[in-house]
Amino acid sequence: MAQIDHLGISVTDYARSLSFYEQALAPLGMRKMMEFDTPAGKVAGLGAEAPNFWLGNGTPGYVHLAFAVASRAEVDGFHAAALAAGGRDNGAPGIRAQYHPNYYAAFVHDLDGNNIEAVCHGAE
Prior knowledge:
Layout: E1 7-11, H1 14-25, E2 31-38, E3 41-47, E4 53-57, E5 64-68, H2 72-84, E6 88-89, E7 94-95, E8 104-109, E9 115-120
Parallel strand pairs: 1-4, 5-9
Antiparallel strand pairs: 2-3, 3-4, 6-8, 7-8, 8-9
Helix pairs in contact: 1-2
């Protein structure tokens, strides 16, 4: 089955957004793995085993990004951590049966209004 290899988004305040994502994604086992300068500014790669989520300075556009996780506890942890880091609730953790009976997800708007989701497809 195909998987997303990596995704990059532009943010208006790199340092603030990097801090947000480091906090929000920590419960998912993700951390900053790489950071370097480009002509447009700093870029960071975050991930668990490889840097597959990238942030950089720029003009943001609306992005929906879903992180698949192994447990509902991770979904809950993501939601709590993202809100504590300054995100806005866009859907508390819970079943979204319209997708399938075990679709357990939470949604937050990040600091730039992007819609970020953590989802567990398992019955746990």
